[in-house]
Amino acid sequence: MARGEDVVSFGIGEPDFETPPFIAEAAIEAIRRGETRYTATEGTPVLRAAIVSYLERTEGLQYGPAEVMASVGAKQALYNALLALVDPGDAVLIPAPYWVSYPEQVRLAGGVPVTVPTDPARGYHLTVEDLEQAYRPGVRGLIVNSPNNPTGALVADTDARAIAAFCERHDLFVIADEIYHRLTYGPSPVTSLASLPGMRERTVIVNGVSKSYAMTGWRIGFAAGPSEVVAAMGRIQGQTTSNPTSVSQAAAAAALTGDDRSVDVMRRRFEARRHLMLAGLADMAGLHPVVPDGAFYIWVETGWLTGQHEGRPLADGDVLARFLLERARVAVVPGSGFGGPLAVRLSFAQSEERILEGLSRMKKVLQTSV
Ligand SMILES: Cc1ncc(COP(=O)(O)O)c(C=O)c1O
After folding, report:
1. 18, 204, 299, 336: least buried by Cβ within 10 Å?
2. pTM
3. Ligand 1 pocket check for 296: Cβ under 6 Å
4. Measured from the CB, is residue 179 less than 6 Å from ligand 1?
């Protein structure tokens, strides 16, 4: 920390692992080969072929090279998709809690974000009933993030089928943010909405190498969808950033086509840390952690806390986050930015030792004030 204080951060939104060496090596090789010039806006043919084969291998989905493109992180792929699909005034359904950038990107694209509350009693798993309740005329699209940041909730296969039928019935486009697809902890495989009948032609898949391959700084995301939408996204990218960094593209191509053992090693480490964090949170009275199916976050409901901090109820996520930082020197992210003010988000992308230290600090201050 800038003031030299020892803060345990549970605020981290990226893997704490190093990028696997064979991936970094591929970038070094690309520099040696002189791959340091502009590439095609949508990504090199090598990377696009790697994206095509990755989607086939991991999701069983068949796309052609003209139906995929690379961007500067999944974030740019999402924004390109929204700019391509949203007309001024179009409403877009966003299940809450949501990743912070969705509503802002919809607004930047001229659209109107429509929050879809999901049920805490059902672990925030999105259902078609949630969507039906929020639907109104003028809704043109839906953003689905499974596993979800911040709750870790998956869309169950049966729910996905009902959601697909809902999207067909209302003729909606879907942006499926699958950035955490490889980081799941349950027995059931995660369904890609695009794999369901009638969905491929209305869905843009957004994914990337940031989270699965510990490559957040390389800034490579990708999208797959109908060729006319991907072409429009390519034209938008062509007038904004042009291609993502050439050497990062070489690294991403190596990641997507290379030995996947490193992904599984990281996934298993996350799984063990998830267990550690859940066990520690279980004995803190007043905190209700939601067991995540995927990603590396735990959404902790604060509504049952009874203490106060500086005259304000600790049950509020903003107040609890400030309290934990000031009293325990533990950083957590308040839920308000994710559309859940009575919660905080804790990341377990942190070493086992620091997780234990942070939990013990939290426990101490909560015991004395609740
Ligand atoms: C749900 C979700 N989507 C997209 C992104 C953006 O990923 P990238 O770093 O590849 O832009 C993140 C990053 O935190 C995320 O949590």
Report:
1. 18
2. 0.97
3. no
4. yes
